[in-house]
Amino acid sequence: MNSFKGAQYPKDVILFAVFFYVRYRVSYRDLEEIMGERGVSVDHTTLNRWVTRYSDAIAEVARRRKGPCDRSWRMDEIYIKVKGAWVYLYRAVDKHGKTLDFMLSERRNKPVATKFFAQMLEVNGLPREIVIDKSGANTAGITAIYKMLKGYGCPIPIEMIRRKYLNNIMEQAHRFIKRRTRPMLGFKCYISAAATLAGIEFAHMILKGQLTSGLCPFQQFAELAY
């Protein structure tokens, strides 16, 4: 977790601003006004720096603390505009819609799919099956990981399923990202895009009950920063 040492504002103020932005459909100028109404004078550019600096770090902690997921996975990508160009947000959920992992990439090919699948395995263990579209890159990436596991003496079969209707839950899972990013009209910086999207994904994981129960969403968000 990044240190708050040297910050000009109290830690709770920074965390509140970051959580509010990634959780709700507000612009940085809207958030600047909201903070001002609560007696905190902070510029929208500072708010952007806070989100970029802290949301990705908190999301990385959440990745490893989230509860277990089902071994039936769904994997897909959506387009995100960064600096006027389309990039790819790789996303995966289990059959119940719980978030497994996510990764922003400038490319959509075998090496990227392999990297994303390996990242999912590290945090979530081995799946029983994985539902994908007809993407050759995703097929090649999963096959490469399976061959690697087999080479290490772990020949556990992973069934790849390409049935469009089974991936409907993945399409539903994309909706909240699209609703949140549509008003942004694209990102100006790749690093900022990756950090902001990680924060949005994490905030949604909280709403789905994938982290600590018994605490309000903001408390769950904040405790990962301590």
Automatic annotation (TrEMBL):
**Gene Ontology terms for molecular function:** DNA binding
Give a Pfam family name.
DDE_Tnp_IS240
Where would you find the membrane-spanning parts of this chain? 185-207
Give the SUPFAM superfamilies listed for this entry: Ribonuclease H-like
Q: Which InterPro entries match?
A: DDE_dom (IPR032874), Integrase_cat-core (IPR001584), IS_Transposase (IPR052183), RNaseH-like_sf (IPR012337), RNaseH_sf (IPR036397), Transpos_IS6 (IPR047930)
Key words of the record: DNA recombination, DNA-binding, Membrane, Transmembrane, Transmembrane helix, Transposition
Annotated GO biological processes are:
DNA integration; DNA recombination; transposition
Q: Where is the Integrase catalytic domain?
A: 64-225
Which branch of life, at top level? Bacteria
Per its database record, what is this protein's job? Involved in the transposition of the insertion sequence.
Its name, as the record gives it, is Putative transposase
Species of origin reads: Ruegeria conchae
